[in-house]
Amino acid sequence: QIRVTSSRMIRVTQVDSEEELEKFSVWNVVFSFLRGKLNDTSIDVDLYSNKTCLKVELLEPGTTYSVVLLRRFDPKLFLVFFLGLLLFFCGDTLSRSQIFYYSAGISVGLLASLLVLVYMMSKVMPKKSPVYFLLVGGWSFSLYLLQLIFKNLQEICKSYWQYLLGYLLFVGLLSFAVCYRYGPLENERSINLLSWALQLLGLLLIYSGIQIHPIALGLVLIAVCTKNLDYPLQWAFAAYR
Fold first, then answer.
1. Where are the domains of the chain?
2. How far apart are CA 192 and CA 185, in angstroms?
């Protein structure tokens, strides 16, 4: 992990190569104004990356900053790996659970409401409006907003907890009403599709939670073999008989 700390607010931008630092792009200019200004920024670095480029923009004269490389255990990756194991091995049970159905529906409603709001704004915005260029990306711009919100979630909870609580209550109740209206899945094929989707998502999370790719791939194969171990045993027993 690369950590950039400064005495005043700065902007830190991560790019793929040095050429992109000098390349002019309208979207880079737009997002440079939208990107949050922080005095403590952390960037995760892939162990297999050959090169990591970042740009530090000083917003005020006299600003001093330091760039430090850290190697430590990341609890977020462990949680991602554990969640992947849970989804993969418990996907069959979760796909039939009403508690999981309503919990997942409310969670998806809370996250998707911002995407839908920005997408609707992009549809009703006049074509010649300057703001339209910010919303023309639709989903990509709203995904960036979600990333910005999660990055500053602690500050939002401190300063705007009333609005956050109202948003969670309103959208949560609305999502629950929609889930209650359509009810849990009853068709066996739909349940199987949900179970397979949860197991596939679990495998992706298992792979993403380990930074050493050969070990991650090996753990995915072990998980798949362990999940379906009863079938080879049944075949072996049938062949023995």
1. 2-69, 91-203
2. 10
